[in-house]
Amino acid sequence: MRKSLIFIVSAMLIISSVLIMSCGDNGGTTVSADAPTIGVTIYRYDDNFMSFVRRNIESLISGNAHLIMNDSQNNQAQQNDQVDVMLNREAKALAINLVDPQAAQTIIDKAKAKDIPVIFFNKEASPQAMASYDKTWYVGTKSEESGDMQGQVVVNTWRANPSWDKNGDGVIQYVLIKGEPGHPDAEARTSHVTKYITENGIRVQRLEELNANWDTARAKDIVDAWMQKHGDKIEFIFSNNDSMALGALQSIQALGYNQGDNNKFIPIVGVDAIPDMLNEIKKGTIVGSVLNDALNQAKAVVDLALNVSTGKEPLEGTDWTLDEVKAVRVPYVPITIDNIEVAENTYK
After folding, report:
1. Residue range 126-143, pLDDT digits in tens
2. pTM to 2 decimals?
3. Closest CA to 230 of 259, 199, 260, 209
């Protein structure tokens, strides 16, 4: 019995030390004792784009605040519990990448009860939730803008490559890999990419559309099935993000496409412009993407969090602006081989 007790106590000490290290001050950087504590949650650490946002937040906040960083593992109940812990640890501001945007009000109510400011980022709360607490802000993008810019890449590259119209009918026969059902970005990107294309005089025909929940492996499986069903009838693959676009590339390359043979090529376009995607654009296997600026989104989150955690106005000393729903909007940029250095510079 005594040995079991010793083992349990030892295990608790180890877990405690791990938690302390994980919530520490980033690589041993000294932080003053009176610096604010800022609590951050990421909906899923293994999301490719959010991994870059997280690393930038950690780097930018280092030395300026005590950081509590959490992986919510795509579980809203777990994120709610993490918010409770951060509030109990007297965090002076919360920066929340929601698992489920519908849960925003629950988190706002928790923070409001303790008069703690909240900055949501990447997944936007409803205007009603944002309006319910004067110390709530958002950092992100205009979702529809990414769909429009993806459409711009499609229009420009399609017109420059008439051989992509395999059946010569002047219509883009496309498949679309969608992100998470109901996610504002997924819905806006899905509707706006084709809206932009058709408004610019090119007809489209949807062959397939399916959710892959932002996941590379899931996207590969979906495109495997589509290729078996449609094969060379697919003239373009639209993807709501780069991770899924890379899964599509894996699928078609296994069948001999997009490997330097122009007779075996299906153009693919994504969103995020992550490094792996940029490498493929440089190789010519991917047509383009849309830069979702992880560096500047992280910078805006940190700027606002540091300000409000010390009682300052959210935009004090910054160049950011707020729109009518208290949101900082970081602009997207369409990326092809012609301007790929714009995206590469954000990762330096």
Report:
1. 999 999 999 999 999 998
2. 0.81
3. 209
